[in-house]
Specification:
Blueprint lengths: L20 H12 L11 H16 L3 E3 L2 E3 L1 E9 L7 H13 L3 E5 L3 E2 L13 E3 L11 H7 L10 E6 L1 E3 L4 E2 L8 E5 L6 H9 L40 H8 L5 E2 L1
Parallel strand pairs: 3-4, 3-5, 3-7, 6-8, 7-10
Antiparallel strand pairs: 1-2, 3-11, 9-10
Bound molecules: zinc ion (ZN).
Zinc ion (ZN) binds next to α5.
């Protein structure tokens, strides 16, 4: 008898509570994550097509994970130069929780620790100049060097680099060289920084009306993911507006399930 193919990312038939999401992620999703060795590099376009076919075949138009069923998905890869204070898994749970409210599943590709030498054969660089950190800016030499590390990433995959510091000091920066979608997250980042920076990559701006003409936060809104006044002040799960959701779903880096 013909049976529908099993979805790629589903492992449980019950609807677990958010409380055990972290346990699920470590025991199930991590174990299912394809390992670096299983994916060849150098032909991202071909890999993209293959991944796309596998996805469509296996998921029959629906993405499902611990956070529900979704009509859209993005794929991110986490590359660590130095581990952030908040654990990667905790940032990922926060991100998946808030992206689920935008009907977007966050898939994760192979995770790896990378070394970006200051000079060939030199010691690891940990701090990166991202000035002025505007979307579409001319990339700095540091950004070019960092974002060139796209091992296992397809052309629409978003690569996150965990560094010690940015210059100037920020929690993260989502300015990326053309054709290399990604963001930098620093060691002192909050649990919402990952979700916030990827929000920028998907086309979101900071919310309007929080700052005065001198750039001082006078009326911050810490209920929103895209606050420009510091995600470390967010309490509870932040919100994304309908207009922001529409923008995220129509990003070139977001795919239909
Ligand atoms: Zn921001």
């Amino acid at each position: 008898m013909w049976k529908p193919p099993r979805p790629w990312v589903i492992e449980r038939s019950v609807d677990p509570s958010a409380a055990d999401a972290a346990t699920y992620l470590t025991t199930h999703v991590r174990s299912q994550r394809p390992e670096a060795a299983s994916v060849s590099t150098g032909k991202p376009a071909m890999l993209d097509k293959l991944r796309e076919r596998i996805h469509i075949f296996c998921n029959m138009g629906i993405c499902r994970d611990e956070f529900g069923t979704h009509n859209f998905r993005i794929r991110i890869l986490l590359k660590t130069l130095i581990a952030p204070i908040i654990k990667l898994d905790d940032m990922l749970v926060s991100m998946r929780t808030v992206y689920a409210t935008a009907d977007i599943m966050v898939e994760e590709g192979p995770r790896e620790t990378i070394i970006v030498p200051v000079s060939p054969g030199g010691s690891t660089q940990l701090d990166f100049n991202v000035k002025p950190c505007n979307l579409g800016q001319t990339p700095t030499a540091d950004q070019k060097k960092l974002f060139a590390n796209r091992n296992n990433a397809g052309s629409t995959d978003i690569v996150i680099y965990f560094v010690r510091q940015t210059i100037p000091p920020l929690n993260g920066c989502a300015a990326f060289p053309a054709g290399m979608p990604g963001a930098v997250v620093t060691r002192n980042a909050s649990r919402w920084t990952l979700a916030h920076e990827v929000g920028h990559v998907l086309g979101l701006s900071h919310i309007a009306g929080e700052k005065n003409s001198n750039g001082k936060c006078v009326t911050p809104d810490f209920t929103r993911l895209m606050t420009g006044c510091g995600t470390s002040n967010i309490a509870g799960t932040p919100t994304i507006t309908a207009a922001e959701i529409a923008k995220m779903q129509s990003s070139p880096f977001t795919k239909k399930c």
